[in-house]
Write a structure and sequence with these properties.
By secondary structure, the chain is mainly α. It has a two-stranded antiparallel sheet with strand order 1-2. A hairpin with a 6-residue loop joins strand 1 and strand 2. Helix 2 packs parallel to helix 4, helix 3 packs antiparallel against helix 4 and helix 4 packs across helix 6. It contains 14 helices and two strands; from the N terminus they run H-H-H-H-H-H-H-H-E-E-H-H-H-H-H-H. The chain is 67% helix and 1% strand.
Length: 338
């Protein structure tokens, strides 16, 4: 339930000149870190965190949240333009965003991606405002058995997003699980799969994993050609085509609603994260595809489904962070300091 006096007090804080300034700065810092592969939202927040020690608590929280929001959006921009997700949440965006860029529709893809990100983030916080207590109560009920179910769900999602190569997808899913076992077991303390390298006793860092799996292959591919889009006309930036992508986003109302709800639900689960939300939303959009839609080959609805969910997960993670003090992700854990 909303406490209206507190709500209006919060509005008064928002209209103060410090808050819009912090939102503007935070979004730009987050965008820069998100666009650069390997520099994720958690790193951006860790860098900006010392500057918040002299700020008021509410202002500091707004700044850090803006950085995270900008990083999620920036990660989708990198995923669309160079097939390299700037953050793990941008993985699903590469499935259709990059094929659109190769066809010369990078401006439309960016319009779709940015608009879906804004919609997902905005409505997730509106949902958080009115339903923070039920969301927190739901998060409390999730224990080890429920988290195992989420793991199984992720495997099902991976199997569903197979396209034309089911066994390749299944293999990469199993390979990812094996990579996740490298390091020291949290339950037993046994070191696994390090092959004697002390540097990976804590596991493989996410940033290094993204750079190795996504960036390096794409760099080798780009060596053989000058531009991603070979058509010279398609290589230019066109604000009109960007706005066309903005308008086209609202054609997929069902996908926006479904992706927002998926993102909120996944976001409230501890350690689930925005990457799972975007993959699950993309899988559902693919399952409900209409005849003639080609997901994985430049389908605009795929970009919308992935981006609306990964930004909507932010509101879900903030609900348990604010209500219970339990971070739903590594980025939320850094924000807990503020």
């Amino acid at each position: 339930m909303v406490t209206w006096p507190a709500f209006f007090k919060g509005l008064n804080l928002i209209v103060a000149w410090q808050t819009p300034l912090c939102i503007f700065i935070g979004l730009w810092v987050g965008l820069i870190f998100g666009v650069i592969p390997g520099l994720m939202g958690s790193i951006a927040i860790a860098v900006i965190l010392p500057f918040t020690f002299l700020l008021e608590p509410i202002t500091a929280l707004v700044l850090l949240t803006s950085v995270y929001t900008g990083a999620l959006t920036g990660g989708g921009i990198a995923a669309t333009l160079i097939n390299t997700p700037g953050t793990p949440a941008g993985i699903a965006t590469t499935f259709d965003g990059y094929p659109m860029a190769k066809k010369g529709y990078q401006n439309e893809a960016l319009g779709l991606q940015i608009t879906a990100s804004v919609i997902g983030g905005f409505f997730s916080y509106v949902f958080l405002l009115f339903f923070i207590h039920p969301m927190a109560n739901l998060a409390i009920k999730f224990g080890p058995s429920e988290m195992i179910f989420i793991l199984i769900l992720v495997l099902v999602v991976i199997g569903a997003i197979h396209g034309e190569h089911f066994f390749r997808t299944l293999f990469i899913g199993i390979f990812g699980l094996l990579l996740g076992t490298i390091g020291t077991s949290q339950s037993t303390g046994v070191v696994r799969g390090t092959m004697g390298f002390d540097a990976i006793e804590d596991g493989i860092p996410v940033a290094i994993g993204i750079l190795g799996i996504f960036c390096i292959p794409e760099l080798f591919d780009l060596i053989t050609r000058k531009f991603i889009a070979e058509d010279a006309k398609a290589q230019s930036n066109d604000i009109k085509r960007l706005m066309h992508g903005f308008k086209a986003t609202f054609r997929y109302v069902k996908t926006l609603i479904r992706g927002t709800l998926i993102g909120i639900f996944i976001g409230i689960l501890p350690a689930a994260g925005s990457a799972i939300a975007s993959l699950f939303s993309y899988s559902q959009a693919e399952q409900h595809a209409k005849p003639g839609q080609c997901f994985g080959k430049g389908e605009p609805e795929g970009v919308v489904a992935a981006e609306v969910a990964n930004n909507a997960s932010e509101g879900g993670s903030m609900s348990i962070l604010l209500a219970l003090g339990v971070p739903g992700s590594g980025t939320a854990a850094v924000r807990l300091v503020s």
